[in-house]
Amino acid sequence: MRQVNLQPEWADSWKLSYAYDRMEVYGATHHRGYLYAYENRRRVTLALLAEVLAPGARVLDLAAAQGNFSLALAERGYRVTWNDLRAELAGYVQLKHEHGEVNYAPGNAFELEFEAPFDAVLMTEVIEHVAHPDDFLSQAARLVRPGGWIIITTPNGAYFRNRLPKFSDCADPSIFEAQQFQPDGDGHIFLLHPAELQSLALQAGLSVDRIEVFTNPLTNGHMKTEALLNVLPRTAVERVEALTRRLPARLQRRLMVQMGARLRRPFMR
To answer: Tens digits of per-residue pLDDT, 114-138?
Structure first.
């Protein structure tokens, strides 16, 4: 991926994307917990996909923003289609594009149509921003071929510090429609619990292949541990992360900040 430098004439959406790139790609942040959590999410996302699909597979990256996952997959040999509601961001992604196949399909994810379904649909840190995650997951299922995969990352709603509501407890999700699709890290509406994601997957006609939780409060810099991250060697932080991922599943789901899932659309009978 080609490194870019901020230009004063850029659109505001490009400048916002560049600000995230400085933290997530270039590591220009004092918040090590943010960087460690992002790197965990990237590692888990790419592994969930690579374990089931070889390079050459067609992947749709929904609501892909500055396109870092799109570009990473293209560089690994996947045939990627980038999507985001903000069409002008395609130019920013193209500026960073260096190797591999990337196609561009901007637009509302709920309204996308393609001539052929994809081998996989990627949704990283997206589903928590929509008022109707059930419909969003059903739309993703329509975009993937039978036997294809949906890869999701999202904050773990079962994390003990989460104060946002469950989607399943909301009688009328339409009241949140005005605040969905916010283009930055804010605007979380619902944080799905692992069991809740399983239920939504079944409603969308998908089977759950794997759900895992990851990134403990130390790695993420929560609970005033950010100062510790400035003195602890990274190897120590990674050891603690590895140890907490060996805890019983019930404890992990309360302790871990992030969640990754791999869902599959069943073959037609």
So the answer is: 999 999 999 999 999 999 999 999 9
Q: Residue 190: which of 128, 124, 256, 137 has the closest Cα?
A: 128
Tell if the pTM clears 0.90, that is, is over it: yes
Look at residue 35 and tell me if it is in a domain.
Answer: yes
Q: Looking at the 3D structure of the chain, how many domains does it have?
A: 1
How far is 110 from 29, CA to CA, in rounded Å?
34
| Per-residue pLDDT at 183 | 61
Residue 42 domain-assigned? yes
- Per the structure, the complete domain to which residue 31 belongs is given by 12-264
What is the CATH classification number for the domain harbouring 258?
Answer: 3.40.50.150
Question: Quick check: is 119 in a domain?
Answer: yes
